[in-house]
Every structure is written in C-alpha cells, then in structure tokens.
Task: inverse folding
C-alpha cells in the first residue's frame, strides 16, 4: 500500500515540475514556435515562387518581366523559362526550331563561345538582351557592341528614341525608352550596337542604336532590357517592340543562364595545370647542377687554421681610416667640426678651463695666455667652418699651428 502511495506521489510531483517548467519557459517556447512557423511559411512560399532576378519571367517586381510573359501567354504564345543550355536545347528539339524563339539574357556572361555557337546553330529566332562582346562573337558575329548610349538624358527614365529604320517591328513600335535611370532594367545606361540593321540610333554620325538585327532577321539584339520590365512595358512603344520580337513563333524560351551552364572544370585550376610542361625537367636539371656546384665549391681542402686578429690598432691608422670615410662621404663640415672639437678639448685641458668651457671661453683664455689677438683666435676656433676639401686643408694647417703655438707657452 505504501508503494502505491509513493508511486502516486511521484507522479504528482513530476506533473507539477513539468507544469512549472513550462510556465517559466513559456516566452522562449512561444518565440521558438513563431520562428519555426515563419521559417516553414517562408520555405513553402519560396518553393515555386518568383526568382526575384532582373527580367526574371516570374518576378512581379518593377525590374521583373512577369507582365510581358503573362501578356504573351494570353496571346497564345507558349512561354517556358529555362536556366541551362541543355534544358533549352531539349525544349527546342521538343517544340521544333522553326516554331521557337529564344530570349537570351546572359547578364553575367556565363556562356562560353562553344555554348553560344551550339545555341545559334539551332536556327531558332534569337533575341539577345544587352549582350556583351563575347556573347555577340559567339551568337551573332555580324553585330558588334558600340558602347554605352550617348542619347540625351540616357539616365532619364523619360527619354525616348525613334525607330528611324526599315525594320517592321521597330517601325511599329515608333519610339521606345532610351534611358535606364530608374533601375528597372539591368544596367545604369543602355547599350548601342552596330549591325546590318540598326534602329533607335543615337546619331547619324555614328550609326549605332538600341536595336540591331542580322540581315535575315533571325537574330535580334535589344540594348535596353528595361523595355521588357514590368515598370516600363506600358510606356511609349516598348510593349509593341517586345511582343512583336518575342511573339514571332508559337513558343518562347525565356533563357537566363545559371551556374548549371558552368562546366565542372571551370573551378580554380590546381598548380599542376598551371605549370608549363618544360618546368619540371628544367627544374630537376637545375637542382642537380646546384647540388654539384655546392659540392664543388663547398668542399674543404683541409682543417681550418686559426689566425689571431690584432688587438692593438695604432692611433694613426684609426685617424687615417676615419679620414678616408669622411672623404668618401664628402662630409667636409663634419670633419671640420670633429677637428675643432678635438683641438678645443686639448686647449681647454692645457689652459685648465674644465669640460664646461665654450669655444669663446677657450679663445679668450688662449689670447690672454699666449698674447695673441682675440679676433684671430675666434676666426680660427669659432667662426671658421670650411665647406670644401681645399679650404679644410688650409684651415686644418692653421688650427694645428695655432694649437702648437698656444701649448708651447
């Protein structure tokens, strides 16, 4: 009976502790639950949602292109978004090259020349949005990049450019946006191109425009991608140009290359791949030669012979060595100052003036001691500072003679 009572008491105590623990930690439990719910909702909404990229076909933001895609679908054009060359080529084979238009927006220039050649060789209608020079070289060699737009107000979202060409699609559009100033497109300024057909040119002196096409019209280049964006599609003739170029065939492939198009070997090359083929044998041969040279030059002919170094150096040699150093360094003033300091020290000692005596004090004491003119002594001991070798020699002779005359009395 006591065992049953103890078990019941333990169960009650456990429930009480559990309830108390929940009460104490209710804030963190509620916060953790809310965070988990938000994370799950974000994951669920992220799967199959918009990509959020510039001119992405499923992006409803101002820089996206969802509006153009929806209108094309309502017009009966089958729009399919692809993010790799293999998927794009498979879709072309499935729908037929003659019934397919491919919009290529390779913003980061991920495709190589070989990949662009494979895409161009399919024979589909190809629309290139703001392509760089390498993209043009691989997909449309007849068209070349002419630089950034010089149209007035190119960064003004309200600036426009007239077609002024014989292309039917451009003529139907009339005028399109020339500026890219509101950030709805992919660049800060539009790009100009030269080719067999050029429309929306910036000037007659430089025949380059925002739209170019090959002679057969199968490849077209659009230099201002913002005309396809949600923010710009309804302005001027942007929609007319977009729908006429992208709706030429029943099917449209909206191709935005991704990392899937990068080859597996496009990572950083290791050292063996960067090393020339001749470096290894040449390096081995140089190593052998270096070892032989060290053995040849480093061999010892016999035991080392100790040789005692001189411990006493004559003062004349020290003075001569220091003089040569001053001469090599052209330190004339330093040599003069050294000679004067030595002479003043010796004269002060001879005249018993002490170490605190100045040059003027030494000159005055020497004048009184030797009976020499004070001005002459000051000229030699205080004011004279030669700057050339010849002047130094003359002054050194005068200083030596003066010192001998004073110390001899």
Result:
């Amino acid at each position: 009976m006591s065992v049953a009572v103890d078990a019941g008491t333990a169960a009650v105590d456990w429930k009480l502790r559990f309830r108390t623990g929940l009460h104490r930690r209710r804030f963190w439990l509620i916060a953790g639950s809310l965070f988990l719910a938000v994370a799950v909702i974000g994951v669920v909404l992220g799967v199959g949602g918009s990509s959020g990229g510039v001119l992405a076909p499923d992006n409803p933001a101002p820089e996206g292109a969802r509006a153009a895609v929806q209108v094309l679908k309502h017009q009966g054009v089958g729009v399919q978004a692809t993010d790799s060359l293999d998927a794009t080529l498979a879709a072309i084979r499935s729908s037929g090259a003659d019934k397919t238009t491919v919009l290529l927006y390779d913003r980061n220039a991920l495709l190589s020349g070989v990949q662009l050649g494979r895409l161009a060789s399919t024979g589909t209608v190809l629309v290139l949005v703001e392509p760089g020079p390498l993209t043009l070289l691989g997909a449309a060699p007849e068209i070349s990049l002419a630089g950034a737009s010089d149209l007035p107000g190119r960064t003004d979202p309200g600036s426009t450019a007239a077609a002024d060409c014989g292309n039917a699609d451009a003529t139907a559009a009339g005028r399109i946006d020339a500026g890219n100033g509101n950030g709805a497109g992919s660049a800060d300024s539009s790009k100009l191109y030269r080719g067999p057909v050029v429309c929306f040119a910036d000037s007659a002196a430089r025949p380059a425009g925002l739209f170019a096409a090959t002679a057969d019209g199968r490849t077209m280049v659009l230099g201002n991608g913002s005309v396809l964006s949600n923010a710009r599609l309804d302005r001027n003739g942007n929609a007319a140009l977009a729908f006429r170029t992208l709706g030429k065939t029943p099917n449209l492939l909206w191709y935005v290359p991704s990392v899937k198009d990068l080859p597996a070997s496009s990572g950083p090359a290791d050292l063996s791949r960067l090393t020339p083929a001749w470096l290894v044998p040449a390096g081995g041969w140089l190593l052998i030669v270096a070892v032989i040279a060290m053995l040849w030059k480093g061999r010892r002919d016999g035991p080392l012979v100790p040789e005692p170094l001189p411990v006493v150096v004559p003062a004349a040699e020290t003075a001569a060595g220091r003089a040569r150093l001053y001469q090599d360094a052209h330190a004339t003033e330093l040599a003069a100052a050294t000679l004067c300091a030595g002479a003043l020290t010796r004269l002060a000692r001879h005249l018993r003036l002490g170490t605190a005596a100045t040059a003027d004090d030494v000159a005055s004491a020497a004048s009184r001691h030797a009976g020499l003119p004070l001005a002459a002594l000051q000229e030699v001991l205080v004011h004279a500072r030669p700057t050339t070798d010849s002047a130094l020699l003359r002054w050194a002779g005068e200083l030596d003679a003066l010192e001998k005359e004073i110390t001899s009395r």
Q: What stands out?
A: The longest strand covers residues 78-82.
